[in-house]
Amino acid sequence: MIHSLFLINSAGDIFLEKHWKSVVSRSVCDYFFEAQERATEAENVPPVISTPHHYLLSVYRHKIFFVAVIQTEVPPLFVIEFLHRVVDTFQDYFGVCSEPVIKDNVVVVYEVLEEMLDNGFPLATESNILKELIKPPTILRTVVNTITGSTNVGDQLPTGQLSVVPWRRTGVKYTNNEAYFDVIEEIDAIIDKSGSTVTAEIQGVIDACVKLTGMPDLTLSFMNPRLLDDVSFHPCVRFKRWESERILSFIPPDGNFRLLSYHVSAQNLVAIPVYVKHNISFRDSSSLGRFEITVGPKQTMGKSIEGVTVSSQMPRGVLSMNLTPSQGTHMFDPVTKMLSWDVGKINPQKLPGLKGTVSLQAGASKPDENPTINLQFKIQQLAISGLKVNRLDMYGEKYKPFKGIKYMTKAGKFQVRT
Amino acid sequence: MTDSKYFTTTKKGEIFELKAELNSDKKEKKKEAVKKVIASMTVGKDVSALFPDVVNCMQTDNLELKKLVYLYLMNYAKSQPDMAIMAVNTFVKDCEDPNPLIRALAVRTMGCIRVDKITEYLCEPLRKCLKDEDPYVRKTAAVCVAKLHDINAQLVEDQGFLDTLKDLISDSNPMVVANAVAALSEIAESHPSSNLLDLNPQSINKLLTALNECTEWGQIFILDCLANYTPKDDREAQSICERVTPRLSHANSAVVLSAVKVLMKFMEMLSKDLDYYGTLLKKLAPPLVTLLSAEPELQYVALRNINLIVQKRPEILKHEMKVFFVKYNDPIYVKLEKLDIMIRLASQANIAQVLAELKEYATEVDVDFVRKAVRAIGRCAIKVEQSAERCVSTLLDLIQTKVNYVVQEAIVVIKDIFRKYPNKYESVIATLCENLDSLDEPEARAAMIWIVGEYAERIDNADELLESFLEGFHDESTQVQLQLLTAIVKLFLKKPTETQELVQQVLSLATQDSDNPDLRDRGYIYWRLLSTDPVAAKEVVLAEKPLISEETDLIEPTLLDELICYIGTLASVYHKPPSAFVEGGRGVVHKSLPPRTTSSESTESPETAPAGAPPGEQLDVIPTQGDLLGDLLNLDLGPPVSGPPLATSSVQMGAVDLLGSGLDSLIGASNFVSPPAAAVPANLGAPMGSGLSDLFDLTSGVGTLSGSYVAPKAVWLPAMKAKGLEISGTFTRQVGSISMDLQLTNKALQVMTDFAIQFNRNSFGLAPAAPLQVHAPLSPNQTVEISLPLNTVGSVMKMEPLNNLQVAVKNNIDVFYFSTLYPLHILFVEDGKMDRQMFLATWKDIPNENEAQFQIRDCPLNAEAVSSRLQSSNIFTIAKRNVEGQDMLYQSLKLTNGIWVLAELRIQPGNPSFMLSLKCRAPEVSQHVYQAYETILKN
């Protein structure tokens, strides 16, 4: 199982190590550094590295490499999933997951890691349980602790750990009982030069924030459950009920959690809400090129498109760009050759555009590659797949909870080829 | 206020100050000090000097402080073993604490202290905790057994903890079950032979129940454990599959992949006609697609596994091509994997889409990726024949871009396309030649030179082109030099008149001015060929080349099957079996997909069972590879044997049977038979033989023609152990000649040739009487049946067991060894009928202690049937008596080496059990004769 964990910053310093079995010398990370050097960018460091005696499995999050060391055959996904869980837990505990924050909270970090694994076997990874065992630091609690001498380590057996609903602790109490659900859909798409769709799919999630007293048992039904044929559930969802009735029935964890994630890939169900008109051309003879893009709404079901940003990696030969936007602000970074344009909201009456010239470096030949345009946008109050929640019911408790459902569509990896 | 304060130091010396604080009377100060110590420890500072002071803080009822001290202990106990003993008492006391959290914590921490002296004290508390009333403590204790095993395996076995752990598999709490499974799996990994996790339908059922209720990590352990189980039939496989499928919708990708592994493996057992099979196939696609929307690291592992899955069962993802399209900001390792899978999924139906994508990728920024994309276009051309033309034109478009590395890569793949479709796309050569000057990579240059040489007759200025390369001959890499040498020789053979000078130039460059032995040798070979026999040279150099196929980049089927069993593991990421990379010392058991058994089949015929049994069992009789090697190495495995063995045979046979050898040596050439000796030379005519045995066999003359009983073929050498060669076979004896009927199957991807066989010395001198003749090369997935005649004149060495035969088979790939047990009745000779008087005399003469008695059960035949059946296998009934309602058969048989065996068979009508008494001067054969009786009578 998982032997050790090293946290490494992008400068290549190991700033935390934790061993669950015997101590593995940190020199093992040298193999990782080699791979890091070979990969041009941090994102390209291969996630599985073999060394003569160990395997290094790593994930890269928040500019930190989380490197797990294993010695025997362990499912790599198991390790990688666990590392992601570590990242999520840190974020949950400290709000952000960054090197200074981890260093500031090193004792809590250590205590949490110790609780998460025992001899390399996962022990407690549900944040609900962890928080019962080790209370997250808050300013108030630290102050109280220093005065009263009490600790942030719970001395009770975590109640959820052994019950049939390990994800929920008992004795939850709220004065305002509320349950909010966010249906968030991200469109991943590749649009080709001519504007037709190469691939498009929707990655959807339903994130919940449930603050309900006691042991509520919820059911959530959809207007069109047939859309969901490829779903992954939180362990709390009763799979049998879904199979037979297409209803989500569950006892929710306390607080924030991801109820389900789904995937819609049938092309005809994926509407593309924006289009990009582009004209980027270079001439063989001249060192000046033309650049012009326009963004417009397509299938938006009457909703407006907000938070639009356009970014594009320009070819290496580009020296500078002289552009004028019809709205928003734009920037070209001459070092990374990254063009970004913060458009804002699209007004269908007056489409935003960016127009101007591109100058190439002296002597540079016409670039070989065509830049790809990356698009970000948001549409409020719309799930682009058409998914709609029908109703939410609560059983097992007597009070009337406050319920809310929000929809949002975002661009995921939305790329337009030119 | 944050923890960073623990890192601040004062000038006085950190350790000194901490020591003072640790010994402070104030609880609060103590705790802060321990926190500082831990903080220093985490960043790698050595604070071991504070050991006694920290241990002193352990006796506290403050849980946090206790935990911190435990943390410290785990890190430093190893370096201070004597001091660590001080902590033992507290641990033992804590294991009795009323709070289960403390009990669990104590047993958990104690297991992490890797000091021998401490582990001794650990045993008692651990035993209690394994039986604790609180499941939280039990599950912690289960893991602790694995920890202890890692430190001191012997201790764990001696204390019987393994059995307790096995009992925990039936625990009522699912988490305890999961942890017990995890601990056992980890222990089993270091003892691959030990049968720690012997699964049976009952335990499987318990695991499946626990699967639904335990945490995600527990589910992974249980699923991985399930994957090692082989269901007894398709019905059981299906019911397990049904209970595992809900796991495909789990949010944890590792759970999903482990479930996929179980399903992929057990699907192997289901019949493809089953409705359920189709349903299952459909259910597998969406979760695999979903894995691709996860984080890139997860995607990478998933893609490596999908690569295996699409090779094994392409139908699962054949409609999902688009999810593998590359996004420009995917990490490079994801891009390359996606590309590979796109090619595997490419088919006539989607090739247009794929090509458009690949062309798009060829204009990206990342050079490695662009190269691979261009190469992929070539692979598509080779894979999907209908698309070849479109691929070639796409490649030509790319060459027009004049991007240097794209052009070079395109030329390399066009060479492969020429190899696959000769005489089809040569019109593009002109375009290729235009780019000659821009080629600066050896591979591209070599490819271009190959093309010029191969099509020299169609390129007008081929000589000029090649000459231009020749100028800088010594600066080229070996690859290019070799290719240039060959190309010019080809050119010379095609246009001898104009190019004599050129060829001489290259030959002298290669042979006289080069230090590279490969180049020199090739140069000399060509030179010699050209100077001695230009016609032969033409045949050799311009020979028709075998076509290449897309299979070259598939994984060998046997390896693929093994890798499917390792889905989700490191082996699946590296596409190598664990034996190829797991650290030495730990033997690795080969896994194989279960054979397809239907429930009806499995009940009826036990005889077929060995064929399907795990290969490991088959080969138990093999001694260690090492000493077998020693024995066999001095055997000549060259093209064998027909001449000399026959010559020696007559000499050795003399020892066995004078008459036979006399006849053989006198008139052996004139096709005369020496029936007494089983060692009939291969050239003997069969009809003659049968006639003669009829003559000798005056009493019955029936049934002999059919020959003795032949067991169905069993797998002797599984493909996994012989680089794709599978050998199954059986032994037959027909009218005086023994043969080994072999079935060779090529399960590798390459053609197999040059077969040869050799036996090690054995108890009865069995040896091949003729070389192993496989006439045509054995192409992949082809099977041949061969009957190899045997004689019994080889060298004799007593084997254990007596009928053990060790065989070496050679082919163009390697030499493989296996051993098998031959049934003794193939050695029963046709003249084994003893005279009545002689029988009586011999029976009395053999001492009674040589008599062996056996019981043959469940044989429903009557005396006549028994007698005639045995007769066909050369066991002759000499007399029959009826004593008190029982039939007594007196029988004799003779082995090829002249040993007589006398038998008395007692048959009671209506009772299916027979009594067999055997008398023989060499009593060690009796057991095997009895087995021969069993086989003959029961089949």
From TrEMBL, chain A:
Annotated localization: Cytoplasmic vesicle membrane; Golgi apparatus
GO terms under cellular component: clathrin adaptor complex; cytoplasmic vesicle membrane; Golgi apparatus
Gene3D superfamilies: 3.30.450.60, Mu homology domain, subdomain B
Topology within the bilayer: Peripheral membrane protein
Keyword Membrane: yes
Keyword tags: Cytoplasmic vesicle, Golgi apparatus, Membrane, Protein transport, Transport
Alphabetized InterPro entries for the sequence: Adaptor_comp_med_subunit, AP2_Mu_C_sf, AP_mu_sigma_su, Clathrin_mu, Clathrin_mu_CS, Longin-like_dom_sf, MHD
GO biological process, alphabetically ordered: intracellular protein transport; vesicle-mediated transport
Main localization of the protein described in the UniProt heading: membrane
Coiled-coil annotated spans: none
Taxonomic superkingdom: Eukaryota
Signal sequence coordinates: none
Domain MHD: 176-417
Family to which this protein belongs: Belongs to the adaptor complexes medium subunit family.
Name of protein: AP-3 complex subunit mu-2
Source species taxonomy: Eukaryota, Metazoa, Chordata, Craniata, Vertebrata
TrEMBL record, chain B:
Biased composition (Low complexity): 594-616
Bilayer disposition of the protein: Peripheral membrane protein
Keywords attached to this entry: Acetylation, Membrane, Protein transport, Transport
Residues annotated as domain Beta-adaptin appendage C-terminal subdomain: 828-938
Clathrin adaptor alpha/beta/gamma-adaptin appendage Ig-like subdomain domain sequence ranges: 709-819
Pfam families in the record: Adaptin_N, Alpha_adaptinC2, B2-adapt-app_C
Family membership: Belongs to the adaptor complexes large subunit family.
Chain residue ranges for the region called Disordered: 585-619
Main location: membrane
Localization annotation: Endomembrane system
MF terms (GO), sorted A to Z: clathrin binding
Entry-linked InterPro entries: AP_beta, AP_complex_bsu_1_2_4, ARM-like, ARM-type_fold, Armadillo, B-adaptin_app_sub_C, Clathrin/coatomer_adapt-like_N, Clathrin_a/b/g-adaptin_app_Ig
Protein's recorded name: AP complex subunit beta
Organism ancestry: Eukaryota, Metazoa, Chordata, Craniata, Vertebrata
GO process terms (BP): intracellular protein transport; vesicle-mediated transport
SUPFAM superfamilies, per the entry: ARM repeat (SSF48371), Clathrin adaptor appendage domain (SSF49348), Subdomain of clathrin and coatomer appendage domain (SSF55711)
GO CC annotation: clathrin adaptor complex; cytoplasmic vesicle; endomembrane system
